[in-house]
């Protein structure tokens, strides 16, 4: 496993972001809640888009799309072994 090294500026940026989020929550929490909800809805639709939304993006795909049919598994023929066992007796 590679070892991650974080430089001091990583901690500085994370600290400033945390301070900004806390100050935003103190000043006006409603705007922060709205931003979190909008980002959550976008993430949800990205991970599991509904069909009507997918049709808006690419209607030609669903015009010709047919769900895959269930097929019976094909039994493969077994190859004949190259070697034969010869019964013999050990002395």
TrEMBL record:
Segments of skewed composition (Basic residues): 70-81
Keywords, comma-separated and alphabetical: Membrane, Transmembrane, Transmembrane helix
Annotated segments matching region Disordered: 70-91
Spans through the membrane: 7-23, 29-46
Name listed for the protein in its UniProt record: Uncharacterized protein
Source organism: Thermoactinomyces mirandus
């Amino acid at each position: 496993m590679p070892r991650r090294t974080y430089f001091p500026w990583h901690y500085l940026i994370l600290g400033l972001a945390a301070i900004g989020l806390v100050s935003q929550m103190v000043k006006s929490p409603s705007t922060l809640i709205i931003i979190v909800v909008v980002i959550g809805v976008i993430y949800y639709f990205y991970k599991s888009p509904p069909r009507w939304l997918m049709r808006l993006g690419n209607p030609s795909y669903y015009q010709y799309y047919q769900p895959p049919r269930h097929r019976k598994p094909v039994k493969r023929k077994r190859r004949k072994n190259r070697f034969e066992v010869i019964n013999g007796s050990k002395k």
